[in-house]
Write a structure and sequence with these properties.
heterodimer; A: 583 residues; mainly alpha; 2 domains; four-stranded mixed sheet; two-stranded antiparallel ribbon; 24 helices; 8 strands; B: 375 residues; alpha+beta; Nuclear Transport Factor 2, Chain: A; Immunoglobulin-like; four-stranded antiparallel sheet; 6 helices; 17% helix; globular
């Protein structure tokens, strides 16, 4: 049974301008405070951006791993940071790009939610996205610019996919293709997994709705689906061609590195707090509603199933689902992003739930829900303070960079020990090259890939694998021109002393000791087969960034005026009381 | 309606079942963080009780490990932690427990003897320690008793210091170490021998500081093919004593993993030396050195720190000779406990079984490290 949208004072959607204003009020001050700089990966993205700033058409970066290809990671957000850094500087450019992604998410969530629920619930879902714990967690604690930049683009593209498959509008096909290509240029995994979690439910919805309004035959539906799948596939293959070439020639086969998001959140509750409680926040309270309403309303079932699978995988090692579905990729991926996607898929339900609660309880509901939203957002934002990426916040890398940059020290390579995630910050500031780095999928040095350690600077935290990797790289110091080890953690001193390294200088009131290896030759560029040829560098500089420019342009193409009698996005009541389902 | 209820029930039940499966039988990556324990860690057998203790130690859950002990009233939690990690800074202080093994030795209805072997990952490589635990039945479960090694008590004493020391006067402030612009100390390789082992080629040898000043030394070797092409270059890394006093000799060992001696035409040896300040302190005596025959061939003995300062880490390098005085093997061991003044500390260097029968004599040198000092 299909019901029309309810109209009435309490059923009006929240104006988009108000929602965007809420996003500005909540997130702009935090970004102006540069809070994401405390996160795990923000400096990593800024480091990549700094390379694009100086070498737009050359993805070979010699500052980490004695040389690695940045074509192993989709470049779009970092390229935007590089471009905007000419105006704001690197740090603030990062904040600007992240801010744009947050605003785009508001619009994307509204557009995506409109496929499933009415305008009021969709607008509430968009407002909820401002306070979404997983968004704040990824922005301020994880620093996952790629994921948080790609998801909004992808969400904005999905309604065009629906429109194309459902109505066959060519403009929508074009817009969907371009937006999906731009999303892939920002983060390939979002598109890959998004195809299963987001696109399949949208296609299923189009199939369910095919008899509603202008009828579409099953064959036309299939033809359009195949057509856009092929078109998008070709577009993404082309836009990210150097990435695919690198992936095919040098697949990620290194020894897996442990990541806490793969833990069982019940057996290891401290990780459950980080990767479940914080990202979901008050949304946990909505889980029963999501399962109930998603099951009862046939139209919402595809969305529920997409949510459910993302939810289960996002639980990491709490269930065997991720391991079974992803195989070896389970040991390479991290799972906070799956929780992020799950929460995005949950937002239309959240919009429905809130709309109904407000309709029924008015002010009481508004007060309660506002408190829950603030608590969820507040916990996720503050998580980077309570659970900082780098427990040692007192480290200043400027003097270290200055030391490396003077007196020809940068003729040799270096490695840091005990610098945490400040190594990316240091790499931005120094001209010297390191054998360490934070982009595990891009590293090719056998000493690092075969031991299962993460960054050398945090070797001891990776147990035997990390320490074996450090030992192996120090053994081959001469081969890499590795002459300097900058130590902020004296527990590594015995290794350096017995391996023949000697302290030669101190920095920062002797909290940093610089160890040197006598007789190490100056660093020479590695003649690695992974160096992308010039034509790939040109492609890398033009097409990913170009895809985003094209996306901006095609969005400006006006939609045809919709027919007055266009179908609403009806919600089947399933026999429940009228007014409880629509919003 | 009915379909919806069925779907909701199916999804919720499936979710709960999957969570239960993942918790009762965790996947390996989850086990990495949680240890081998499941939701209901059981101490229903002596082995399970010791295994749970190993899990808690490996996860750094000291309080829970301490609480699980049957004899915890006999010592404090701090003493328990220090017994595992050391009372003074040493290799174990920042080590992580990589793995552990539990082996039953003896069991009756109400008590059992279990051997707990702990494999630590230290910055200088793996380190192993073994404890025999008495496990007793307490009600419906078992609890291990921890055999605490009491903190060694060093009596107050006066130790005269009369060691030799060499200082280096640098030309000016800010000069980097090792850039003094003086001639390098004279060193020479007095013995060198390549050996084919299952893991690859190993080069054994000895280096002499032929000068009257101390030297920092290292040795690099390049394997060359029969056509003179360089095959691989490696250096002695930590299988050498890097600081040599005048007329001192150090053994060295250089590993070439996966290399085969038959493909090697020649070997280029490059000793490196430079002038460094050095001192003969701390003096570490080697007492009761004894060659133990196969099986389990080894060199055992005791180190005695004759100085008045604590040595945080000691490295024992043993050179093994055949009857003709040629080097047969070089082995080493890091002592993972701090050496206290005048307190003996045992060491044990393993000798490969196939070479042990050729060994007729040995020479041992010790180098040391103190936090805050230099080698």
């Amino acid at each position: 049974m299909l019901k029309p949208e309810l109209t009435g004072e309490s059923q009006r959607p929240i104006p988009m301008s108000f929602i965007l204003l809420a996003a500005v009020i909540v997130h702009l001050p935090l970004l102006l405070m540069k809070l994401p700089l405390k996160s795990y990966d923000t400096n990593f993205h800024i480091f990549f951006a700094s390379h694009y700033l100086h070498h737009w058409f050359d993805p070979w970066n010699t500052k980490w791993y004695a040389g690695f290809s940045q074509a192993t990671y989709p470049p779009l957000p970092q390229q935007w940071v590089a471009v905007l850094s000419n105006l704001f500087g690197l740090d603030m450019a990062y904040m600007a790009v992240q801010f744009a992604a947050i605003l785009l998410l508001v619009i994307g969530v509204y557009r995506f939610s409109r496929l499933w629920v009415g305008p009021r619930a969709a607008s509430i879902a968009a407002l909820a996205s401002v306070f979404l714990g997983s968004e704040s967690f990824l922005v301020y604690s994880a620093g996952q610019l790629g994921t948080t930049f790609a998801a909004p683009i992808y969400l904005n593209g999905l309604p065009f996919l629906f429109d194309w498959v459902r109505h066959g509008r060519g403009r929508s096909c074009l817009k969907a293709t371009v937006l999906f290509a731009a999303a892939a240029a920002a983060h390939h995994a979002t598109l890959l997994f998004g195809a299963f979690f987001f696109a399949l439910p949208v296609l299923a919805l189009a199939l369910l709705d095919r008899e509603n309004g202008a009828r579409v035959s099953t064959s036309a539906f299939l033809a359009r689906t195949i057509a856009i799948a092929v078109t998008v596939g070709v577009a993404i293959a082309f836009v990210l061609l150097p990435f695919w070439i690198a992936l095919i020639h040098y697949p990620v086969t290194q020894t897996p590195i442990p990541h806490a998001s793969r833990a069982n959140y019940i057996l290891s509750p401290q990780y459950g707090l980080s990767y479940f409680i914080v990202p979901y926040g008050a949304l946990i309270l909505a889980l029963p509603f999501i399962f109930w309403r998603g099951s009862m309303v046939a139209r919402l079932r595809p969305l529920l199933l997409g949510f459910w699978v993302a939810f289960l995988i996002g639980l990491g090692g709490t269930t065997p689902v991720g391991r079974v579905l992803l195989g070896r990729a389970f040991e390479v991926l991290t799972f906070e992003r799956f929780s992020y996607w799950a929460t995005l898929l949950a937002l239309p339900f959240v919009g429905l739930l809130i709309a109904e609660l407000v309709a029924r309880y008015r002010t009481k509901a508004i007060v309660g829900l506002t408190a829950l939203a603030a608590a969820t957002c507040g916990l996720a934002v503050s998580w980077s303070t309570y659970h900082p990426a780098d427990a040692d916040q007192g480290l200043s890398v400027e003097p270290v960079a200055a030391w490396l940059n003077r007196d020809g020290h940068d003729q040799y390579r270096y490695v840091t020990l005990g610098f945490g995630n400040q190594i990316a910050r240091l790499a931005v500031m120094t001209d010297a090259s390191s054998v360490d780095g934070e982009w595990y999928s891009g590293r090719m040095l056998p000493e690092l890939t075969s031991n299962g350690g993460g960054t050398l600077t945090s070797s001891k935290y990776f147990g035997k694998g990390g320490l074996d990797a450090l030992r192996a790289i120090l053994m081959h110091a001469d081969h890499y021109g590795l002459k300097w080890v900058l130590v902020r953690d004296p527990s590594y001193d015995p290794l350096l002393a017995f391996a023949g390294w000697r302290p030669v200088d101190y920095l920062e009131d002797k909290t940093i000791t610089i160890w040197s290896k006598d007789g190490a030759p100056p660093a020479t560029p590695l003649n690695a087969p992974q160096i992308p040829p010039h034509w790939q560098g040109v492609m890398w500089g033009i097409f990913p960034f170009g895809s985003s420019i094209l996306a901006l342009l095609v969005i400006l193409i006006p939609e045809k005026r919709r027919q007055k009698a266009r179908e609403e996005y009806p919600v089947e009541t399933g026999g429940l009381a009228p007014g409880r389902l629509a919003s | 309606m009915k379909n919806g209820i069925l779907l909701a029930a199916a999804l919720i039940i499936a979710t709960v079942v999957l969570i239960v499966i993942g918790t009762v039988k965790p996947i390996p990556s989850a086990e990495h963080f949680a240890g081998e324990q499941n939701l209901l860690p059981s101490s229903s057998t002596p082995e399970a009780a010791v295994r749970n203790l190993g899990d808690e130690i490996s996860l750094g859950h000291w309080a829970r490990a301490y609480d699980s002990l049957a004899n915890k009233t006999q010592f404090s939690e701090d003493e328990f932690i220090h017994d595992l990690t050391g009372y003074y800074a040493n290799l174990r202080t920042d080590a992580t427990l990589n793995s552990f093994e539990v082996r039953p030795l003896h069991a009756t209805e109400n008590d059992a003897e279990m051997r707990l072997t702990l494999h630590w990952a230290t910055v200088l490589g793996p380190s192993e320690s073994t404890r025999d635990l008495h496990v007793t039945r307490v009600g419906d479960h078992w609890a291990p008793e921890w055999p605490l090694d009491k903190r060694p008590a060093v009596p107050p004493q006066v130790i005269p210091v009369n060691y030799l020391r060499w200082d280096v006067i640098y030309p000016g402030p800010g000069d980097d170490w090792g850039v003094q612009g003086v001639e390098a100390p004279h060193v020479r390789i007095v013995d060198m021998r390549p050996v084919q082992r299952a893991e690859g080629v190993v080069i054994l040898g000895e280096l002499l500081n032929d000068d009257v000043v101390p030297a920092y030394v290292s040795v690099t070797a390049t394997l060359q093919s029969k056509t003179g092409k360089a095959l691989a270059t490696e250096d002695s890394f930590d299988k050498i004593s890097h600081v040599l006093l005048p007329k001192q000799v150090t053994p060295f060992l250089i590993d070439f993993p996966d290399a085969t001696l038959s493909s090697v035409g020649s070997i280029r040896m490059s000793p490196f030396s430079t002038l460094v300040p050095a001192s003969a302190d701390p003096v570490i005596e080697i007492d009761n050195a004894h060659l133990n025959p196969a099986p389990d061939a080894s060199l055992s003995g005791e180190l005695m720190n004759e100085s008045g300062q604590i040595v945080n880490v000691a490295h024992v390098l043993g050179t093994f000779y055949d009857k003709s005085g040629q080097v047969v093997w070089i082995g080493d061991e890091y002592i993972d406990r701090a050496l206290l003044p005048q307190t003996p500390q045992a060491f044990l260097i393993h000798i490969p079984e196939d070479l042990a029968r050729n060994v007729s004599s040995q020479r041992t040198v010790v180098s040391s490290f103190e936090y805050g000092g230099v080698l």
